[in-house]
């Protein structure tokens, strides 16, 4: 039995195979409509979500399976003081696979110690979010056709943005990747990501405060929301939340085939007028996320 807590729980070959399955699903959805018949997915979301939870649920329904779960800690027995371990143990009697989101870093990992069914980390605090990374990788594959030789800019909240941490980790396994981190000083990429991932693999990176100066180099611009819920101080959040707003003028010197990504939800970081720019890929990420979750559920249930 395999759990997916971190993107490196999947080998490069497994990621390639998930991408191949997702591409096949896109071609022939009907072929997959009964693959998870009589299987149940439980979505245990102790923290808010729109895309990730509904995408997992839609993925399971499109595979012919069914879905149970809760969408907030307050509607589960966690509000009565039940531990995550007990909740997961119990849910293992009802479901064949669990997707779990929790505000505490490491909670899904702790859950694996007691779980009798595969657990997928659907986001743990400011730590990891491997299935968003699968959505991002399929988007990069479809837009760029490669994972090597790309200059990837990450902009915004690089400190708390778990999707950034997971994607940097994923990219560190490919060659010719150059990273450009664009953030205010307070929201820089954490030191442990630099030490444990970037410096270990020798990926070149730069850190800057302005997006205009680096824009012409970028193949991918990954925008992020300032993660207000992880701040200790409301005043800091208010000061930093609109630090970067991507507007059409900022794209004047950008590559014609730049791929603009964002895990969503968007607050103010990308002007609505950019949505019709052919370089905007953030709604494609949403669609791709569902296909990759379908492929992942099948793999973990032994169906692919
Ligand atoms: C992200 C998350 O939850 O980390 N959202 C998502 O799953 N697509 C990004 C965010 O909340 O800013």
Concise synopsis of the structure shown:
This protein has about 300 residues and is of the alpha/beta class. The chain is built from 9 helices and 9 strands.
Structural notes for this entry:
The protein has 304 residues and is of the alpha/beta class. The protein folds into 2 domains: 7-128 and 286-300, Aspartate/ornithine carbamoyltransferase (Rossmann fold), CATH 3.40.50.1370; 131-282, Rossmann fold (3-Layer(aba) Sandwich), CATH 3.40.50. Helices cover 34% and strands 14% of the residues. The protein has 9 helices and 9 strands. The chain has helices spanning 12-27, 51-62, 84-91, 107-112, 130-144, 162-171, 191-201, 234-240, 282-300, and strands at residues 40-45, 66-70, 97-102, 119-124, 151-155, 178-182, 205-208, 220-223, 259-261. The strands form 2 sheets. A 5-stranded parallel β-sheet has the order 7-6-5-8-9, covered by helices on one side. Strands 2-1-3-4 form a 4-stranded parallel β-sheet. Helix 1 crosses helix 9. It is globular, with a radius of gyration of 19 Å. It starts with 11 loop residues before the first helix and ends with a helix. The mean pLDDT is 96. N-carbamoyl-L-aspartate is lined by residues 51-52, 123, 129, 132, 162-163, 225, 227, 263-265.
């Amino acid at each position: 039995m395999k759990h997916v807590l971190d993107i490196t729980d999947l080998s490069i070959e497994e990621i390639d195979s998930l991408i191949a399955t997702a591409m096949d699903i896109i071609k022939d959805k009907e072929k997959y409509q009964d693959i998870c018949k009589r299987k149940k997915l439980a979505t245990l979301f102790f923290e808010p979500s729109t895309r990730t939870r509904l995408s997992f649920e839609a993925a399971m329904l499109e595979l012919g399976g069914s879905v149970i779960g809760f969408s907030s800690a307050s509607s589960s027995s966690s509000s009565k003081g039940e531990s995550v371990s007990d909740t997961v143990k119990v849910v293992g009697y009802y479901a064949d696979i669990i997707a779990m989101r929790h505000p505490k870093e490491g909670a899904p990992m702790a859950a694996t110690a007691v779980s009798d069914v595969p657990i997928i980390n659907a986001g743990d605090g400011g730590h990891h979010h491997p299935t968003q990374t699968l959505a991002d990788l399929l988007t990069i594959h479809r837009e760029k056709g490669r994972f090597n030789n790309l200059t990837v800019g990450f902009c915004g909240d690089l400190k708390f943005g778990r999707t950034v941490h997971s994607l940097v980790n994923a990219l560190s396994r490919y060659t010719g990747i150059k990273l450009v981190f664009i953030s205010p000083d307070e929201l820089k990429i954490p030191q442990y990501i630099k030490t444990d991932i970037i410096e270990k693999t020798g990926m070149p990176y730069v850190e800057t405060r302005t997006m205009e100066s680096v824009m012409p180099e970028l193949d991918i611009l990954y925008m992020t929301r300032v993660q207000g819920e992880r701040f200790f101080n409301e005043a800091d959040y208010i000061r930093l939340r609109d630090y970067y707003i991507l507007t059409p003028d900022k794209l004047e010197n950008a590559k014609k085939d730049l791929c603009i990504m964002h895990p969503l939800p968007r607050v103010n970081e990308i002007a609505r007028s950019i949505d019709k720019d052919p370089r905007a890929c953030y709604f494609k990420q949403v669609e791709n996320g569902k296909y990759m979750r379908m492929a992942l559920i099948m793999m973990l249930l032994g169906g692919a």
